[in-house]
Amino acid sequence: MDVFESKPLKLVSAAFYIVLMFLSFYCACYRLPVGLKYAINLLIFGWACAMFFLRPMFNRAIFCLRFFALFFFPYLMFWMWSVAIWISEFQTFNYILRGSLNIFYMLTNLMFASAAVYLFGEATMPLTLVGMTMANGLVALQVAASAGIGTFISEYIRLLITFADDTGGAMRQMELHDMVYGWGVMVIYYAIHKEKNHKTQAVCFLISALFFTLGFKRIAVPAVFCAAVMYHILCKWRPRHLQLLTDVIALVAGGCIFFYLWMIKSGLFVELANEFGVDLMYRDILYGYFSQFFELLPTYMGRGIRFIYTYATEDPSYPLATAATHNVYLELYLEVGFWCWWIWILFELAFRIHRVEERYTEIPAYALMAMNLYVFFTYLTDNTSFYYPINVLYRMAIMVWCLEISENSELVDPEREPLAVVKESRQKKRNKKGKEENVEEDFHICV
Question: Among 210, 233, 215, which residue's Cα sits nearest to residue 373?
Fold first, then answer.
């Protein structure tokens, strides 16, 4: 069953969706008002609701709602915790509004991702890629026309050869921070996800790689490579106790990141960077300024979401023009405190993977682990926790992957068993375990 009854309606709907995606990602290219993409998010969500009432697909709707809740929980937690902080500190309405807006924007992003998957199912990723390509391609044409095609190509080659050490004026215009991280998700997705048509997969991968390298963020390159390698290692290894593995990874990763925050707080990180000649690009000033506002203790409860932006824009002594730390771990710890920060780490790196693995088998769980690695890599040097493309696309990719398995229960893939077979096998294990527990209980009763 499909959301759209006829093929012509399906084609017109796909074309309309591509136009909306073009406008949204053109906003992410800083060429249209930023609020337009959030309006488009709500439009697509309303479209999905209308189609549900006209031609309901209950299983797919429940699927999308389940993932919406799974992805939105951390942001809801941040907001509710921040509300408690704002009330206790008697903050002004404008202060509370500014902190709440970012959560609302993320809410619309997740509403859009869920609605798009509901409407187009497995076709969501390629249709979205077309819209992204049109938006980023138009920017590339504008830059090339302004700088000259020869200059554009020569600067691009120098950018690749020097690993972004030599960046010309044209390539600086192509460094679209929001878009490049979104293209990183697309590169990973088409590198690890097996499409039905291998030629289509290769074309999508090459397009994604082209725009990813045109934007070229140094932190994103090793992040993409490590994510793809991690996925293939997990597929070959097939760890038996995946949930235990993710729990260990989450705890170790959280401990390492917490130690990283301690290095920033103590000043050791900046000292090491200066000793090895690393250009922190004003991050030493940012870290020094914001370190005075938090403590690495369980008693530290945070200062509320978007505290950094609000305080930095109102404090006349703030030394820089940018109101951001370029470090998501530091930003979230400062704003939501010790306990919320740890819940966020464990939820993202362990609990959510458990849920995906339990319901949709191991392969999409491996994909989610790979995407987590990429996203958490970018958190080290940029404020990607609220960027539009990366947050929409990596969640959309996991949803599409799981939907393929959910709606094709007889699907046979060389990398995975059919979902029906997996569920039957797991049920047998549960029944066997239940029988063993009953026998043990009967034995204790007899004794």
Answer: 233
Distances in Å between the Cα of 51 and the Cα atoms of 42, 54, 112 are: 14, 5, 14
Answer yes or no: is pLDDT of 436 > 50: no
Segment 74-124, tens digit of pLDDT: 999 999 999 999 999 888 888 888 889 999 999 999 999 999 999 999 999
Query: Whole-angstrom Cα distance, residue 416 to residue 418?
Result: 7
Residue 222 in contact with residue 148, Cβ under 8 Å?
A: no
Whether 324 contacts 376, CB under 8 Å: no
The pTM is what? 0.90
* Calpha distance 375→369 (Å, rounded): 10
Q: Token pair of 340, please?
A: 């919320």
Cβ–Cβ < 8 Å for 37, 388: yes
CA atoms within 13 A on the CB side of 83: 8
pLDDT in tens, 330-371: 999 999 999 999 999 999 999 999 999 999 989 999 999 999
